[in-house]
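Researcher: Here's my situation. A collaborator sent me these components and asked whether they could plausibly form a single complex. I don't have experimental data yet, so a predicted model of the whole assembly would be a useful starting point for our discussion.
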Amino acid sequence: MLKGYNPENKVFLAVDCIIFGFDDEDLKVLLIQRDFEPEKGKWSLMGGFLKQSETLDEAAARILHDLTGVHDVYLEQLYTFSQVDRDPVERTISTSYYAIINIESHNEELIENYNAKWFSLSKVPDLIFDHNAMLDKAIKRLRRRTSINPIGFELLPEKFTMRQLQKLYEAILDKALDKRNFINKINSLDILVKLNEKDMTSSTKGSFLYMFDQEKYDEKKAHNFYLKL
Amino acid sequence: MLKGYNPENKVFLAVDCIIFGFDDEDLKVLLIQRDFEPEKGKWSLMGGFLKQSETLDEAAARILHDLTGVHDVYLEQLYTFSQVDRDPVERTISTSYYAIINIESHNEELIENYNAKWFSLSKVPDLIFDHNAMLDKAIKRLRRRTSINPIGFELLPEKFTMRQLQKLYEAILDKALDKRNFINKINSLDILVKLNEKDMTSSTKGSFLYMFDQEKYDEKKAHNFYLKL
DNA sequence: TCAAAAGTGTTTATAATACACCCATGG
DNA sequence: CCATGGGTGTATTATAAACACTTTTGA
């Protein structure tokens, strides 16, 4: 046997997915109620085990899809949790991933799954194992991330108003932003297209809709543009 | 058997440590030459397997100590690598950690281990497995990290000159910095103590030595102070 | 007519950058 | 006496922050 490749050292490696969504008001996280032991009935992140033939990235995408029907989202690795007793059944290490998705555009998929539900961050229940700690870490990362590279367009519908975008950032950063400064900063990034179209549902006056310019965004992202809010 | 806890899913979980050091000129990384298979004779990061009774943090500290004698350093988790064929022997996932240490203050420990050696970043050889990718990721993280929170005092002797500190930042960031601007910024952080003592080895005039004020540093770190260089 | 959201610029404060010369001394 | 690194300050520019009023129209 080669040094260290001792079967006694083998462990279960799980993957847990933290899925954020936004509904024009609150930042939410997707949880499922477990219908199996251990901790049956409790809420948890979407989790599963890594298989021999897949990478962690692939496992995260598979697990998310299997449990919620959601697919084609960009999942980013967050952290690997390894407390010895984190899983009461067997020694299990867990690598967590997080993603942010547009609630509306994935709702159909979710409706079919009765165990998955969105929770506002302020109303997240006690989760199994160390999942609350995972969620906390994901929130922190999302906040830091947001002020480095403008993340967040993934959370909105294709066409959105400045108000929606601002509310999104306020929800992520958990603080109020000045409307004029916000608009000026976003505009200075030059990654939005203003449409000749108004959203009339939000006010009597109606507000212009914007779209996100993927090409310009990709171009700028390559040089890591900062966005201090 | 409980859902998913299928022994077939078990994997080896390795830990690899990227140790950065600084010698007044270059940023270096500590590597060891393997004296066992696979890839015997090739250079690699300090690596080993996670054991059942320890966390990844503990495994990283143990492995670093076992292979180099170095102890009591702050190791931070970097990323978990999971390419299916990254290890030719067995399916092995690896969680990487990185640390920055003061070369001088750990040299005794290292001298006793003939297989460990410092390499300038520009002269790192081909490493085993995906260790070059790990190193690349660690360098990127270190650079980003450095411009958020002043890291780097760990890399210097207890007493150091402004020149040394500037050289260190230049080595980490891989770019030249303006002397006056650098000193002004560092001073404005108010975390250094200027000593009544000069280092005479570096020049005929001699340059004042500084120490790092741990108390002030901890105080400020709590509020995440930024340092843009 | 009024409530509710949309839209719009300027001023001020702070932070980042660019820049050049004299000093001290060991060899 | 000169080469080498040490030490120092100011002006300019760029970015962030604070701040208030007018517009529109459906209910």
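Model: Some features of this prediction you could bring to your collaborator: Chain B touches chain A through 35 residues (CB under 8 Å). Residues 178, 180-181, 185, 203-206, 228 of chain B lie near DNA strand C (CB under 10 Å from a C1').
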